[in-house]
Design a protein that fits this description.
Blueprint lengths: L6 E8 L4 H17 L17 E8 L5 E9 L7 H6 L5 H11 L4 E8 L10 H10 L9 E5 L4 H6 L3 E2 L8 E3 L6 E7 L10 H12 L2 E8 L2 E8 L14
Helix pairs in contact: 4-6
């Protein structure tokens, strides 16, 4: 096992509380996208750092290197969600869909998800990051959650309860961020109950909600990894949800 991967920390925090950590997350995301030839995505807009937003960060405990992350961006009606900016020229119905859900229960998007190849095979890549994004939702006041996923992430997202928004695009799919890449629009309609999640995933998520701060070991095909979880968020700040 690589020395810097013996132990990692996975933490969640409010974006406005730690700008330095947010910028580390952004830089890691940028580097990963560049390996795929992608130089611009809507989720890279840094306006979210001043909005109600919650960042998940995976770091090497030994070196401090950022190895992955994601964020739950709350919709306020002021800054569009990344999914709105990404697909509005292809399907303007996304605006009304988000607006309606801001009014009825609140909504947001789990976006900007990425992980370094260094943690591939250790059991804490996309699957765990998707899972954690759902696990923290019991601490937020959201009635549903959007996502805009690559083909590889769609089945993972559906396993935690998301469903494809077939009414948008071509049965939920769009060419994004390049013409040779596909992305799918999804929605999680019941963040607390997770009735569509696979039973095994649902149990793990509920366990994380009951124990947001703990240390465990994850077994992957490349070996064993110690993981320190700290998913306890600061009290949710009041956010304005008026629709412009």
């Amino acid at each position: 096992m690589d020395h810097d991967l013996k132990r990692v920390s996975i933490k969640a925090f409010r974006a406005d509380e730690n700008e330095a950590e947010c910028l580390k997350y952004v830089e890691g995301h940028r580097k990963v996208l560049e390996t795929y030839g992608v130089t611009h995505v809507t989720s890279a807009n840094l306006g979210w750092m001043k909005e109600p937003c919650y960042v998940i960060l995976v770091e090497s405990t030994d070196t401090g290197e950022v190895l992955g992350g994601g964020r739950v961006q709350v919709a306020t009606g002021h800054l569009p969600l990344p999914i709105e900016t990404a697909i509005n020229k292809l399907d303007t119905r996304i605006f009304d869909m988000v607006k309606d859900r801001i009014v009825h229960g609140g909504t947001g998007e789990y976006c900007g998800l990425w992980n370094s190849r260094k943690i591939a095979g250790y059991g804490i890549g996309s699957v765990v990051l998707v899972r954690i994004g759902i696990a923290i939702l019991n601490q937020l006041n959201l009635g549903c959650l959007f996502a805009f996923c690559s083909p590889a992430t769609v089945p993972i997202s559906m396993s935690v309860g998301y469903r494809i928004i077939n009414s948008l695009g071509n049965n939920g799919t769009f060419y994004y961020p390049k013409e040779d890449l596909l992305a799918t629009a999804l929605m999680l309609e019941d963040p607390l109950e997770l009735k569509y999640a696979d039973p095994a995933e649902r149990k793990i998520i509920f366990d994380l909600r009951d124990n947001p701060v703990y240390c465990t070991r994850e077994q992957g095909r490349r070996g064993m990894l110690e993981v320190d979880y700290n998913l306890q968020l600061s009290p949710t700040f009041a956010h304005e949800t008026s629709v412009l």
